[in-house]
Amino acid sequence: MIKNENDFIETTSVLVADRLEPTTLGNKVVYGFRDRSLNTHKVGVTQFNAYHLKTNHPEDINHYLYGAEYSFKRKERESKINYSGSLGAQIDQKNDVFVMASANVSYAKDSLYSSAQLLVQPAITGPAYSLNIYQTQLNIYEELTLKKNYTGIANLETNYYSDGVLDATLTGKFSKSFLWQKDHSFTPYSEISGTLGNTNREDGYPYWSTKERLFGGLGLTYTLKNETTGIELNLDASAFIDTYSDSFQRYIGNLKLPVTSRFSINANAEFYTLENFYSNNFNLGLKYYLGKN
Fold this sequence. Notes:
Layout: E1 8-18, E2 21-34, E3 40-50, E4 63-73, E5 82-91, E6 97-109, E7 112-122, H1 126-130, E8 134-145, E9 150-161, E10 166-176, E11 178-180, E12 184-197, E13 212-225, E14 232-242, E15 246-258, E16 263-272, E17 280-289
Antiparallel strand pairs: 1-2, 1-17, 2-3, 3-4, 4-5, 5-6, 6-7, 7-8, 8-9, 9-10, 10-12, 11-12, 12-13, 13-14, 14-15, 15-16, 16-17
């Protein structure tokens, strides 16, 4: 497992897609360092593509953007409030400037973990950039671990778009983990989610929203966690009954792979069998520590 307090260089690439049709592609290279209090600072450059949705609307065009970003993360403290945030700006081929910002707070004590995130950014698609539509998202997450490896999760996500669209989604999840050998576990779970909004944009243009939706289903997660090597792997598959699409499946994979004492790989993927949903994402991160260990 990598435990290093040196400066580092980190790259991140994120692809968001409608099924396998790319919606956005973002790349980031940052330089990270810690101050005397071991808080983490990152400064970097970004490159971002917001693609058109292949309609006949005149604003449905590609946007190619370059920018810069700064982020801050407070050193983790047990049983105290931790926080982080970021601020960035990008400019596209028409010299239009877009800004984005985020703020996060979290608190963990005993078996309870709570967090809240506020995010402001342009809505995700090419035409949303053309129309200068911004998304303000508030996400509140609560997780409680009970005896015998039972876990309950509640998550509230609200979205306000600058063209007046509003939606809110409440999700509940209940699971139980079963340890298999030392490093392996299986976690079956049930999940239910409901959405209410003021506008129906289920065709996905210029972004996805709905007036009402309810889905629920079952899933299974496999986890490999090796404390000696630091390797962590999660594979998740689930199936749902849905008022929006009748039914769909979701597949998630996460990998943390320390290659050497200085270099690590972090890869994540989330895939829904839904159309016009713009929630499939594929993420690859590389991190290299500088200096002497």
